[in-house]
């Protein structure tokens, strides 16, 4: 019996096992939505007997190749090459594929070329520093985790760079002369905490600015006033966790918002209310639940589960494994979309979140399908493996914080940046 | 991020520039006409002969090496040369447009273009026309919108903005960058007057447009605010009428709750009753969640009020827990873990059950590795 409401169709009676029907329906439903016709999903035999397989070997080959060579289709990411390093290296670490020493060293040397003489990392050699590739570069180097990798980072200059993008109202611009949004606070807090250059003064007023991004929906927006969005909500929340201020959010409202982003039919997450599912939100949205779990626990919440996150872990794994894998390797947004390294990284990160509950002390796994589908756990704040986080923290906390206060002579640069920044003009010699 | 690669096929498309033809020597001796629209690499242009191109320094063993087209490499080799010399010229300005066309996300190029706009006192009206065209082509890029904002600020002229953004939104009513720019313009230049009407039109087109619901909240909170009971009543009526038209529209329910939560959901008189009425004919998981929130709010407020008797409190708690169970087990099972948690949490807070009466955490097997089948 089919019920219709407001344009949505869903089936009430099931004739085969609950799991198979839900998975098949999931794919058919997504196809129906996308193609307005009942296209049959090409069902891989392993999916029919309902033990979906993570196509490890295919993903590995795709990633291994991409780490070296990318087609000209990637010209649009020419200002995001540290991101490509991070997406690929993180995907490989989740798959527990080792990075050959030579490759790791080559990545270090490349990222060193992306580092700006004035501090921070740029999207490519010779470009200006920007908080997003800075975040990606530091994460990539921490994944590599060798002395060579750690030594690439010029900590003093990195701190200079963070000061150079700090705004009087507590926010950060993404780059000198660039735009403000909550991603920048996360990027800054992430790199500052990992490399031990974080001082309270650097993040003065940042907490209040991030809090002002929580809106009537319960989630966070990119800047105050906008719609709540998964990517920005993750960035704002994770930044506050790093600053130790996550309790200042309305955690209950945030929790209600994020759990409501899981799609009841598809099993994956949408980025905003009333929008479509997308595999990358498997991390940005589902990744909030470990953060909130810990935050609520710290607030004295006694009724938290000791085995599960507060989202449907099985359904998310189904969505990723059944709908987001390209048979030739790589993962994607939803059926019909092309693969890319961004979606590969975040679908796998989300899959890891869905498979692993707990932390160092308490750990409970729920692996859908074969045991071989198991991924390494990922740290919900930094999205690199927890061991790499500890290792980096250990390394950098042996080093002194470069300095505490705002460097002298730093003007209060407002977002308006009409005149050229002379410090950027001469570093291509 | 999407659309970077070909679906399934990993064939590398060799970019063909049909206009490009380097074999001019073939025509020597013919009556031949030099086609001025033919594309020439910068390395072959006389006017650029004085500048030494700067190849990208990827190092001896590059990683994530992009197979740039010849055109791309050529343009960017010259961009790097300009940057190195900090050249402030019209030819530099023209080249930034080419570099942008090849990769509109290159924020270094955009920054340089802005430096040139100022240094060369370029016509900002023309720049507005340029950025309008670029945004129409690539509306989901951060840099293009930021650039437009800078130009509007320099001109101190927002007069084209609302219409322009409305046009972009007519193509994608949820474009986040467009809404961000719109909110900036409205706030900066105090252009509130017609925005509520604009929002209502969008909601007429698509009552499920969450961006429009957000804009509604934005306009009202920055103008009349939500303190005035008349405004609140108007908004409640608006929500309920949209809900009657489309009961499974989460945005409308979220807006209703979002608007009322600071003052308390039980504060508007008769709201609970109106929702209970709707439950009969227009039920949804969102309605039920709203009811739960009303009951929870009533319980919280009853802590302060002495006129709410123990019996009444127990009754409200019972109803709230009933809804939790209904949502967890039947109406909103994807959020089962969450609804069960809320139920346990509410029970615990209300202290109506002792520890010995607490139901065990439902359906959890012994801890340890578990394979799902």
TrEMBL record, chain A:
Residues 403-429 are annotated as: Disordered. It catalyses: L-cysteinyl-[protein] + (2E,6E)-farnesyl diphosphate = S-(2E,6E)-farnesyl-L-cysteinyl-[protein] + diphosphate. Its EC number is 2.5.1.58. Residues 407-420 have a biased composition (Basic and acidic residues). It is an enzyme of class 2 (transferase). GO terms for biological process: lipid metabolic process; prenylation. Pfam families: Prenyltrans (PF00432). Residues 54-384 form the Prenyltransferase alpha-alpha toroid domain. GO terms for molecular function: protein farnesyltransferase activity; zinc ion binding. One of its GO terms (cellular component) is protein farnesyltransferase complex. Binds 1 zinc ion per subunit. CDD domains: FTase (cd02893). Its cofactor is Zn(2+). InterPro entries: FTB, PGGT1B-like, Prenyltrans, Terpenoid_cyclase/PrenylTrfase. Keywords: Lipid metabolism, Metal-binding, Phosphoprotein, Prenyltransferase, Repeat, Transferase, Zinc. Catalyzes the transfer of a farnesyl moiety from farnesyl diphosphate to a cysteine at the fourth position from the C-terminus of several proteins. The beta subunit is responsible for peptide-binding. Heterodimer of FNTA and FNTB. Belongs to the protein prenyltransferase subunit beta family. This is Protein farnesyltransferase subunit beta. It comes from Dicentrarchus labrax. The lineage of its organism: Eukaryota, Metazoa, Chordata, Craniata, Vertebrata.
From TrEMBL, chain B:
Its cofactor is Mg(2+). Keywords: Acetylation, Magnesium, Prenyltransferase, Repeat, Transferase. Its EC number is 2.5.1.58, 2.5.1.59. GO terms for cellular component: CAAX-protein geranylgeranyltransferase complex; protein farnesyltransferase complex. It comes from the Eukaryota. One of its GO terms (molecular function) is CAAX-protein geranylgeranyltransferase activity. Residues 347-373 are annotated as: Disordered. It catalyses: geranylgeranyl diphosphate + L-cysteinyl-[protein] = S-geranylgeranyl-L-cysteinyl-[protein] + diphosphate; L-cysteinyl-[protein] + (2E,6E)-farnesyl diphosphate = S-(2E,6E)-farnesyl-L-cysteinyl-[protein] + diphosphate. It is an enzyme of class 2 (transferase). Signal peptide: none annotated. It holds the Pfam family PPTA. Heterodimer of FNTA and FNTB (farnesyltransferase). Heterodimer of FNTA and PGGT1B (geranylgeranyltransferase). PANTHER family: PROTEIN FARNESYLTRANSFERASE ALPHA SUBUNIT/RAB GERANYLGERANYL TRANSFERASE ALPHA SUBUNIT (PTHR11129), PROTEIN FARNESYLTRANSFERASE_GERANYLGERANYLTRANSFERASE TYPE-1 SUBUNIT ALPHA (PTHR11129:SF1). Belongs to the protein prenyltransferase subunit alpha family. Essential subunit of both the farnesyltransferase and the geranylgeranyltransferase complex. Contributes to the transfer of a farnesyl or geranylgeranyl moiety from farnesyl or geranylgeranyl diphosphate to a cysteine at the fourth position from the C-terminus of several proteins having the C-terminal sequence Cys-aliphatic-aliphatic-X. May positively regulate neuromuscular junction development downstream of MUSK via its function in RAC1 prenylation and activation. This is Protein farnesyltransferase/geranylgeranyltransferase type-1 subunit alpha.
């Amino acid at each position: 019996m089919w019920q219709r409401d407001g344009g949505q169709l869903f089936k009430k009676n099931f004739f085969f096992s609950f799991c198979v029907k839900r998975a098949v329906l999931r794919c058919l439903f997504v196809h129906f939505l996308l193609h307005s016709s009942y296209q049959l999903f090409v069902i891989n035999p392993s999916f029919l007997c309902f033990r979906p397989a993570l196509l490890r070997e295919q993903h590995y080959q795709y990633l291994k190749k991409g780490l070296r060579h990318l087609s000209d289709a990637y010209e649009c990411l020419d200002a995001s090459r540290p991101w490509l390093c991070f997406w690929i290296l993180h995907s490989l670490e989740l798959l527990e594929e080792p990075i050959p020493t030579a490759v790791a060293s080559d990545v270090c040397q490349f990222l060193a070329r992306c580092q700006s003489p004035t501090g921070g990392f740029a999207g490519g050699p010779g470009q200006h520093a920007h908080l997003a590739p800075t975040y990606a570069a530091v994460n990539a180097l921490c994944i590599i985790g060798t002395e060579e990798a750690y030594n690439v980072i010029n900590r003093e200059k990195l701190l200079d760079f963070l000061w150079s993008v700090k705004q009087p109202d507590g926010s950060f611009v993404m780059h000198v002369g660039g735009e403000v949004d909550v991603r920048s606070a996360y990027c800054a807090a992430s790199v500052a905490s990992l490399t031990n250059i974080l001082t309270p003064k650097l993040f003065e007023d940042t907490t209040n600015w991030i809090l002002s991004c929580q809106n009537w929906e319960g989630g966070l927006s990119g800047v105050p006033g906008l719609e709540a969005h998964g990517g920005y909500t993750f960035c704002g929340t994770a930044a506050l966790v790093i600053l130790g201020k996550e309790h200042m959010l309305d955690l209950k409202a945030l929790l209600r918002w994020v759990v409501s982003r899981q799609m009841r039919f598809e099993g994956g997450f949408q980025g905003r209310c009333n929008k479509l599912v997308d595999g990358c939100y498997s991390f940005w949205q589902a990744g909030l639940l470990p953060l909130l779990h810990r935050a609520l626990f710290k607030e004295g919440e006694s009724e938290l589960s000791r085995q599960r996150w507060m989202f449907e872990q099985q359904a998310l794994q189904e969505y990723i494994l059944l709908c987001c894998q390209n048979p030739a390797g790589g993962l994607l947004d939803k059926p019909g979309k092309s693969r890319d390294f961004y979606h590969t990284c975040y679908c796998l990160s989300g899959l890891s979140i869905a498979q692993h509950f707990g932390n160092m002390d308490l750990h409970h796994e729920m692996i859908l399908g074969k045991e071989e589908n198991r991924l390494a756990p990922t740290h919900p704040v930094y999205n690199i493996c927890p061991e790499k986080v500890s290792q980096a923290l250990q390394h950098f906390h042996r080093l002194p914080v470069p300095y505490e206060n705002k460097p002298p002579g730093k003007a209060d640069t407002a977002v308006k940046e009409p005149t050229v920044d002379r410090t950027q003009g001469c570093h291509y010699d | 991020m999407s659309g970077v690669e070909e679906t399934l096929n990993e064939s590398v498309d060799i970019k063909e520039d049909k206009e490009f033809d380097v074999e001019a020597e073939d025509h020597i001796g013919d009556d031949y006409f030099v086609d001025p629209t033919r594309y020439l690499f910068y390395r072959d242009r006389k006017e650029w002969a004085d500048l030494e191109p700067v190849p990208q320094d990827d190092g001896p063993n590059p990683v994530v090496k992009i197979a740039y087209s010849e055109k791309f490499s050529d343009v960017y080799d010259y961009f790097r040369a300009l940057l190195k010399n900090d050249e402030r010229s019209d030819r530099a300005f023209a080249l930034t447009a080419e570099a942008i066309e090849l990769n509109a996300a290159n924020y270094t190029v955009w920054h340089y273009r802005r430096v040139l706009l100022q240094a060369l006192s370029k016509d900002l009206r023309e720049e507005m026309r340029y950025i309008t065209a670029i945004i129409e082509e690539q509306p989901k890029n951060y840099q293009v919108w930021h650039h437009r904002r800078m130009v509007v600020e320099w001109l101190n002229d927002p007069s084209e903005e609302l219409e322009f953004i409305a046009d972009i939104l007519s193509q994608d009513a949820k474009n986040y960058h467009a809404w961000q720019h719109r909110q900036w313009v409205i706030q900066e230049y105090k252009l509130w007057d017609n925005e509520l009407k604009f929002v209502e039109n969008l909601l007429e087109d698509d009552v499920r447009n969450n961006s429009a619901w957000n804009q509604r909240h934005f306009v009202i909170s920055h103008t009349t605010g939500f303190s005035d009971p008349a405004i609140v009543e108007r908004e409640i009526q608006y929500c309920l009428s949209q809900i009657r038209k489309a009961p499974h529209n989460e945005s409308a329910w979220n807006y209703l709750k979002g608007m009322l939560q600071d003052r308390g959901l039980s504060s508007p008189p008769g709201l609970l009753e109106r929702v209970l009425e709707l439950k009969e004919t227009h039920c949804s998981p969102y309605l039920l969640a709203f009811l739960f929130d009303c009951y929870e709010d009533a319980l919280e407020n009853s802590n302060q009020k002495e006129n709410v008797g123990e019996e009444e409190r127990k009754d409200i708690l019972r109803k709230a827990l009933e809804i939790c169970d209904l949502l967890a087990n039947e109406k909103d099972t994807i959020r089962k873990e969450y609804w069960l948690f809320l139920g346990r949490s509410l029970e615990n807070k209300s202290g109506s059950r002792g520890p010995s009466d607490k139901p065990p955490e439902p359906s959890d097997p012994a801890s340890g590795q578990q394979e799902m089948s």
